[in-house]
Amino acid sequence: MRPRLVWLVLFRTVAASLSLVVTVVRLLTQPAQEPSRADSLSFAVIAGAYVLTVVTGLRLRRGTAGRLDATVTVVGDVLIATGLVYLSGGADSPLTFLYSLAVIGAAVVLDWRGALAAAAVSAFAFTALLLVIRLTTPADVVTVPGGRVLFVLGSNALALVLIAVLSGYLSRQLSATGGALSQSEADLRRLGRLQQLILSSMPSGLVTCDVERRVTFLNSAASGILQVDTFMGVGQPLEQLLPGVMGLTPRSVRGELRVRTPGGNRVLGLSVSPLEGEAGALLIVFQDLTELRRMEEDLKRTDRLASLGALSAQLAHEIRNPLAAMRGSAQLLAQEQSTDAVVKKLTGILTREADRLARLVEDFLRFARPQEPQRRPVALDALLSETVEMLRADPLAREVLMEVRVPEALTAPVDPDQLRQVLINLVRNGFQAAGPRGTVRVALARAEKEAQIRVWDSAGSITEEMMGHLFEPFFTTRNGGTGLGLSTAHSIIRAHGGSIRVTSHPADGTEFLVGLPL
């Protein structure tokens, strides 16, 4: 009822204002004279309308308006209409239609019963008005015949009843339609909220674009995977958001795409299909397969390393026996007091190279069959700081800027000697990659259920092709390197139940991330 009462008050305000304007204009267009008694009463009626409007408006603002206020408003409209009809000629007044407006207003705020009651009250008020005018007017002044008065009363009463019935019916229909519309709007809002909830809860990224290939929508998962703000993403070219996606034809069942994001390269498994209902628009649904592909690569690498390790162990044992015999023979030759300088030189080379090959075989065996880690609680922050301080004296560290970030004390069950070996390999590799005037940064942080050690260098020199072979034995890009350092580090970290990952880009540098369970 409150919204309908608000509209009725607004309508009355407009009507009263128009009546005031008409009255003032009429007075201004007449010859200058004192306002008549009728004019004064007209102003009084209009003022009464304003007072009633203000009172009802205040109650509406306070939220206390109800059915009583609606009834008072309708009765006030009938009284205002009666006053204006009286001032404008009684039975011959052109303003008798105001009673019809009061009945229509009653139908709006009080339904059909209120409309019939307003029609009855209006008919009674009009009849009483004409009766008062007839009784107070001298017989020689009366100009309207009695039959005409009865005709006016009857026609107005009939018109009011018909208007009440029609407006009541329309009010019922309007209420029913309004209720259905309100229900439909509520259902639509509920469906809209459900749709937004579904889209925001989807673990898969969802992007839509128009015929001009500009992004029109992306959900929360897409924003998180691509690390782009939702509002910033909408409106930009699709190829800028997902480079290479236009190479996939619509209705493609499945495809993979490598996308560079602020958080690094991501592997996306996505499908492209036309968006129904909008010609030329596309719907792209994708999932982040980066972790899955990384796990697959780790499993493949582990399988390769396990097979290679078994073969390497057998080969190392086969090499050690003839190598020991060769070295023993070289030592016997060296013990003889030979005066031949060439023999001495060759004997020395043979002994030295045999020792180097023996060390290489030992390293190979440590890779193939790493010792079981002797775990104990170790302060990782102290171990990391000590190792870095020790490496500052390394010749490779000259002219290299070193940074150490250990924000908090962190303890984990590890083998300190094996973990120190991993750190030495990673940091020395960083020294060599960064080179003079480069930067190497070592950081320790706590993540969910694991401690993370990050070794970063500013070079970013590892290519995509090298990534697949990085932890394989004998793979090296360094002159004189054995290619066993990273393989051994990988084996040690895997033996601890942890993980080692690497990312590299010329603009962002190279970072090795070691995760150790807490």
Short characterization:
With 518 residues, the protein is of the alpha+beta class.
Write the layout of secondary structure elements.
Elements: H1 2-29, H2 37-62, H3 67-87, H4 97-136, H5 146-201, E1 205-209, E2 215-218, H6 220-226, H7 230-233, H8 238-241, E3 252-261, E4 264-274, E5 282-288, H9 290-335, H10 341-368, E6 376-379, H11 380-391, E7 401-405, E8 411-414, H12 416-434, E9 439-447, E10 450-457, H13 464-467, H14 485-495, E11 499-505, E12 509-517
Question: Could you give the order of strands across the largest sheet?
Answer: 2-1-5-4-3
**How far apart are the first and last residues' alpha carbons, in Å?**
65 Å
Helix content: 55-70%
Largest sheet: 5 strands, antiparallel
Shape: rod-shaped
Tally of strands? 12
Q: Average pLDDT value? A: 78
Oligomer: single chain
Helix count from the secondary structure assignment: 14
Low-confidence runs of at least 5 consecutive residues? none
Q: How is this structure best described in words?
A:
- With 518 residues, the chain is of the alpha+beta class.
- Helices cover 59% and strands 16% of the residues.
- It is built from 14 helices and 12 strands.
- It has helices spanning 2-29, 37-62, 67-87, 97-136, 146-201, 220-226, 230-233, 238-241, 290-335, 341-368, 380-391, 416-434, 464-467, 485-495; strands at residues 205-209, 215-218, 252-261, 264-274, 282-288, 376-379, 401-405, 411-414, 439-447, 450-457, 499-505, 509-517.
- The strands form 3 sheets. It has a 5-stranded antiparallel beta sheet.
- Helix 1 runs antiparallel to helix 2 (37-62) and helix 9 packs antiparallel against helix 10 (341-368).
- The radius of gyration is 48 Å and the shape is rod-shaped.
- It starts with a helix and ends with a strand.
